[in-house]
């Protein structure tokens, strides 16, 4: 029982070289974050550090008991790693993130904004493509709404943020 809810999971080997194992539950409420971390780690293995720099942004805000942001002064999105060719460092941060686990709120707008700022500030060769691989469990819950119910304004603001990124030459997957 991975999470105490009575649903059994299995252990997934996130770091084969160190034999460090992480729980993977068959319970859909518990497996999305692990799948995102595993997916990001697998993507790193497919990319070429000689030609591709990667960065990592998280967008999981703190949540109070009523489902709203508990402290507006705490950013809902953070640049965890600046753009880099050091994939081993990014992989380590992904493992640290898994250990830290998300805080609950989903501010997609801030995630897009932080990533866009990093991509545009970086410059790079004119032919360089700028893109985001956006991994999330689904619905934006901040800044307008809360964790307990979806606010249509959050969806609209997320689409607008993605449109702004596209206008700046950034593709979001």
Summarize the structure.
With 173 residues, the chain is of the alpha+beta class.
Q: What are the main properties of this structure?
A:
173 residues; alpha+beta; two-stranded antiparallel sheet; two-stranded antiparallel ribbon; 4 helices; 8 strands; globular
What topology emerges from the helices and strands here?
Elements: E1 9-15, E2 20-25, H1 28-46, E3 54-58, E4 60-61, E5 78-84, H2 87-100, E6 105-106, H3 108-122, E7 130-132, H4 152-167, E8 170-172
Parallel strand pairs: 7-8
Antiparallel strand pairs: 1-2, 3-5, 4-6
Helix pairs in contact: 1-2, 3-4
Provide a descriptive summary of the structure in words.
With 173 residues, the protein is of the alpha+beta class. Helix content is 37%, strand content 20%. The chain contains four helices and eight strands. The strands form four sheets. It has a two-stranded antiparallel sheet. Strands 3-5 form a two-stranded antiparallel ribbon. β1 (9-15) and β2 form a beta hairpin. Mean pLDDT is 81; it is low at 18-24.
Order of helices and strands: EEHEEEHEHEHE
Low-pLDDT stretches are 18-24
What is the 3D form? globular
Instruction: Write down the overall mean pLDDT.
Output: 81
**Secondary structural class:** alpha+beta
Q: What is the distance, rounded to the nearest whole angstrom, between the alpha carbons of the first and last residues?
A: 34 Å
Order of neighbouring strands in the sheet with most strands = 1-2
Beta-strand content bin: 15-25%
Radius of gyration from CA coordinates: 17 Å
Strand tally is 8
Helix content: 25-40%
């Amino acid at each position: 029982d991975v999470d105490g809810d009575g649903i059994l999971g299995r252990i997934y080997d996130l770091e084969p070289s160190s034999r460090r194992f992480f729980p993977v539950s068959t319970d859909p409420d518990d497996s999305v974050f692990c799948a995102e971390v595993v997916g990001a780690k697998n993507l790193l293995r497919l990319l070429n550090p000689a030609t591709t720099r990667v960065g990592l942004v998280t967008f999981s805000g703190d949540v109070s008991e009523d489902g709203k942001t508990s402290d507006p002064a705490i950013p809902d999105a953070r640049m965890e790693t600046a753009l880099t060719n050091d994939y081993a460092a990014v992989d380590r941060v992904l493992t640290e993130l898994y250990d830290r686990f998300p805080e609950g709120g989903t501010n997609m707008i801030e995630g897009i904004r932080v990533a866009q700022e990093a991509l545009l500030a970086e410059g790079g060769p004119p032919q360089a493509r700028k893109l985001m691989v956006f991994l999330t469990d689904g619905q934006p819950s901040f800044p307008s709404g809360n964790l307990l119910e979806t606010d249509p304004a959050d969806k609209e603001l997320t689409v607008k943020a993605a449109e702004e990124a596209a206008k700046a030459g950034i593709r979001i997957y």
